[in-house]
Amino acid sequence: MKILLKILIWVTPLAMMRTIAAGQYETFDYHVQQMIIHAAANDMTSVQTFRELLENLHRPEPGDSQQATPFSQQGQENLARSNLKNALAAFRQAFIADPADPDIAGHLALTYLRLNRLREAERLSVYALYLSPAHSTHWLTLGEIYGHLRDPQRAAGAMMNAYHFAQDRPQLAGQLRKLATTDDIDEVRIGALQALQSISPRTASSGASNPGEPGHTTPPSLATPAPSIASETQAITAENPRQKVYRRAISLTCLIITFQNGKTANLGSGFLVSSDGLVMTNNHVIEKAENLAVRCGDQESKAEVRRRSKTPDLALLTTSLKTKENLALNETYNRDLVGLDIFVIGSPYGLEGTFSTGIISGLREIEGVRYIQISAPISPGNSGGPVLLRDGTVIGIATLGSKVGQNLNFAIAAAEIVISNFFDPARMKSQRLNGKPHLD
Amino acid sequence: MNNACLTFVLLLVMGLVIGPVFAQQDAERNRFFVQQMIDLAAAHNSKGVETMQRMLEQNPQPAALDPAAANASFQWGQAALQQDNLEDALKAFQKTVQDDPGNVDAFNHLGLLYRKLNQFPDAERALQHALSLEPARAGSWFQLAQIYGLQNDQRRALGALANTYRYAQNPMKAEEILRYIAENEAVETLRNAALETLQLYQLPAQPAIVPPLSPNPALFK
Predict the structure, then answer these.
(1) Smallest Cα distance from A113 to chain B, Å
(2) Which of A284, A315, A404, B30 has minimal CB crowding within 10 Å?
(3) Which CATH class is domain A335-427?
(4) How much of chain A, in percent, has pLDDT values that exceed 90?
(5) Do B175 and A92 touch (CB under 8 A)?
(6) A251-319 belongs to which homologous superfamily?
(7) How much is the ipTM here?
(8) CB B161 within 8 A of CB B37
(9) How many angstroms away from the CA of B209 is the closest CA of chain A?
(10) What digits encode the pLDDT tens for the residues A334-350?
(11) CATH 1.25.40.10 fits B26-62+102-200, yes or no
(12) How many Å from the N-terminal Cα to the C-terminal Cα in chain A?
């Protein structure tokens, strides 16, 4: 069998040269899958053989690494901050500039995994291993991908290869242990556990030392940023109150796009009021739409109108979005509000995620609807967006602006939503940033 | 005028009249083959595409009439292109293809320039000519796809993108470019064509739920 494999080493590259020159994914996928199968069977000799076969395949032309490097750095920064969409855009640019760099391909695969785009993640991960078959991190990513694809056998095989090729095996064992105990996906946990069981008990336990013991290494997460990035992130995390409000609310604030005759018709804003995807906005944003779509943070979904009313100017949309939290409504409506700082997030003229500040200038009742007059600038496209207090609660929905005067803008009071019976406010899970309403 | 002289004159006249007709017929035939490659690629007919490719590759490559002049005008064109001087670049590459009708790079540049100048039929013709000379040139197919996208011809944009992927030196890179276009391209026809191309090759694809927003007209400098 082993002789046969040795022969294969020489014959296969010649036979495959033509197909690989054409860049057949199936060819290098075959080799990667063989490495997984043999690893799962604890046949590391065959793993090594297929690794050599893979290394002997035709290499792609190197790209422009100088052009790719800044994009790759941007991607890593965004990945470390979980800005997955931006990370994807940056790594894609880097990959297109230099598709022969295994680290870029690996990071792109990891980003797809984090975005739950598993087929893309698998293809990029396999390709990264074709470029660098003994790269432990790429194997670990592929193992995670197979776990997410509900294939614990292949997850285990890939993770065993991660261990086999790791330069710091105790650390890798620690990473596997973390996956085996804390990952949300059953098949990832099973795969990691199987891999751990296959590793010799002595070696595995050396990586399983308790914190405080000599030789203990803390298992980093897969997306652990480089030290420089981590320290930069920490520096940025020391946030002021405005940034705190912004960072909390930005991923829960939505861009709303309406379509008519298949074309984009109108842009507006909205925000998530429940963790199962209910989005609040103004009726005038969506009233002429044939179709609707929303983008809240990194997530996008088609949307449908669940309820709407002309007075007050409100609409509630259903989407397929799932979030861990949502923005909470603050039903306070009295003179104590006047003078408080407020923050507006929205998409004025399509400028997504625009953050502005002001104060509550007054309370007004217009045509029987309670409004909060604010000094923060709002423009077309802001309509439907949240007006937030310092504690992160929504005190109003940006709705109107005066064409005369300056900074005379109006938000429907959140209290109007609460009494509108559009939905049960008990569905809202979010807590205020500071525990109590910030009214003083 | 004796008979020999008359025959010579007749042949000369026939040559002058029929020569360009034949040349035009060749060009028309080559364009037909390129169009066939597009239609067959859009229908995912690999064998058909290969057959048409071979037909084009069997054409004799036109010889350069004046290689030195062609080279000089090509250099001039590239320099003008770098300086974003489109008019001069256009003139230079037009001269290049006159002196060297087999210069694929010059035809490619012409395709790019005509596109930049919004002269889409001319761009299409130049790129079809480039592809008739080198039918497996992925870059020309990609440019041609963009022309069809800008002309709202989704079917032909799909065929041209399918050939871009087919002939790409690094299909993984091409795949990622297609995904990028399918999710981010502002021209809807091209965005949809890229998505269809990925689906044609059974590659993972995700349509853009929220299409890319067009440049904001309210912004000014």
Answers:
(1) 13
(2) A404
(3) mainly beta
(4) 67
(5) no
(6) Trypsin-like serine proteases (2.40.10.10)
(7) 0.83
(8) no
(9) 6
(10) 999 999 999 999 999 88
(11) yes
(12) 79
